[in-house]
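Sequence, please.
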């Protein structure tokens, strides 16, 4: 049984796509339609009980955009559990703070391109 996009999170994924945060929307505009390293990026993608902000299948990489809510103790525990689950399933996680996107989105994109470039072979880009 696949852990990817389980039915039980389908409605939540749909709602999250319709109600993205401002930072998520800004990043989405810069990564959609293979604008990031020429690879596809999926948004609000499900893995097991979790929904991630963005997933880059070719790089097996999750991109999480963290706002102020991620500073709370409870959310830090949830984030750690999510990251552990993903890594146990061979999925790397990178977390980007809202401020990184708002203050210098070009630097955030460059950081992602560097990480993705290290994770994929040039022949797999498309």
């Amino acid at each position: 049984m696949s852990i990817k996009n389980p039915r039980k999170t389908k409605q939540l994924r749909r709602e999250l796509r319709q109600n993205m945060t401002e930072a998520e929307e800004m990043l989405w505009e810069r990564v959609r339609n293979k604008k990031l390293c020429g690879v596809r990026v999926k948004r609000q993608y499900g893995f097991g009980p979790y929904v991630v902000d963005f997933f880059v299948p070719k790089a097996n990489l999750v991109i999480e955009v963290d706002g102020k809510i991620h500073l709370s103790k409870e959310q830090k525990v949830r984030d750690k559990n999510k990251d552990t689950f993903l890594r146990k399933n061979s999925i790397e996680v990178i977390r980007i703070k809202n401020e990184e996107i708002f203050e210098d989105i070009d630097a955030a994109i460059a950081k992602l391109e560097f990480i993705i470039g290290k994770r994929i072979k040039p022949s797999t880009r498309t």
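Helices lie at 10-18, 22-31, 73-88, 98-119.
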